[in-house]
């Protein structure tokens, strides 16, 4: 993407994000999520992109309500996603505010669309991050109602998108923000 046209760049971002949702091999399929820990320290982990709209207004991923990331986002919804495509030499940072959808229409639709193996993930006992005596001490339960109750769709309302193209002739960097109903684009020094 060697364009200097902000509209072309934004359109390319949207196409790549939507493609990443459906393509398991897409470089942007597994971004790094950054949150603010309950102790105020930064936390980062990889998530799987499960939704992105063509307007780049919202992106989403799934999680377990018992996870640290859900507690962190429940306490402070500010979140950042970092994407990198080494082949295209593109870095993308999305910042916004997360909403947790649990046992609502959004969660129900995502749950119904999820495969059985994905649903099974939410039956693990004990919950994510709990210390174990042995590596195989976590077990799958057979309670689908409990699994759905733990399933969360994390939806981030996008406030800004920063795009960085690492090109040999000189990097290019642009920041897109939403102000009211208008998208603004400002070039930044790389």
Task: Outline the structure in words.
The protein is of the alpha+beta class. Helix content is 24%, strand content 38%. The protein has helices spanning 6-22, 68-75, 105-113, 116-120, 144-150, and strands spanning 32-36, 42-46, 51-52, 58-64, 78-85, 90-101, 124-125, 139-140, 151-165, 172-179, 182-188. Strands 1, 2, 3, 4, 5, 6, 9, 10 and 11 form a nine-stranded antiparallel β-sheet that branches. Strands 7-8 form a two-stranded antiparallel sheet. A hairpin with a 4-residue loop joins β5 and β6 (90-101). The longest helix has 17 residues, at 6-22. It is elongated. The model has no long low-confidence stretch (mean pLDDT 94).
Key words describing this protein structure:
two-stranded antiparallel sheet, 38% strand, 11 strands
Summarize the structure.
The chain has helices at 6-22, 68-75, 105-113, 116-120, 144-150, and strands spanning 32-36, 42-46, 51-52, 58-64, 78-85, 90-101, 124-125, 139-140, 151-165, 172-179, 182-188. It is α+β, with helices and mostly antiparallel strands and 190 residues long. Strands 1, 2, 3, 4, 5, 6, 9, 10 and 11 form a 9-stranded antiparallel beta sheet that branches.
Shape: elongated
In round numbers, the mean pLDDT is 94
> SSE order in H/E notation?
HEEEEHEEHHEEHEEE
Structural class by helix and strand composition: alpha+beta
How many β-strands, per DSSP? 11
Low-pLDDT stretches:
none
Count of separate DSSP helical elements: 5
Major sheet details: 9 strands, antiparallel
- Beginning-to-end CA distance, first to last residue: 16 Å
Helix content: 10-25%
Radius of gyration: 18 Å
Tell me the β content: 35-45%
């Amino acid at each position: 993407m060697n364009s200097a046209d902000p509209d072309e760049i934004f359109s390319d971002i949207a196409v790549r994000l939507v493609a990443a949702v459906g393509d398991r091999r897409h470089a942007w399929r597994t971004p790094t999520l950054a949150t603010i820990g309950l102790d105020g320290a930064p936390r980062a982990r990889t998530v799987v992109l499960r939704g992105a709209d063509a307007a780049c207004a919202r992106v989403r991923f799934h999680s377990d309500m018992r996870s640290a990331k859900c507690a962190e986002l429940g306490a402070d919804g500010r979140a950042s996603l970092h994407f990198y495509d080494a082949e295209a030499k593109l870095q993308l940072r999305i910042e916004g505010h997360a909403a947790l959808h649990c046992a609502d229409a959004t969660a129900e639709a995502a749950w119904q669309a999820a495969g059985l193996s994905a649903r099974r993930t939410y039956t693990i006992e004990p919950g994510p991050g709990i210390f174990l005596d042995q590596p195989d001490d976590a077990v799958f339960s057979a309670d689908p109602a409990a699994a759905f109750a733990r399933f969360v769709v994390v939806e981030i309302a996008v406030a800004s998108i920063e795009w960085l193209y690492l090109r040999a002739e000189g990097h290019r960097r642009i920041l897109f923000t939403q102000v009211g109903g208008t998208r603004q684009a400002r070039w930044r020094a790389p």
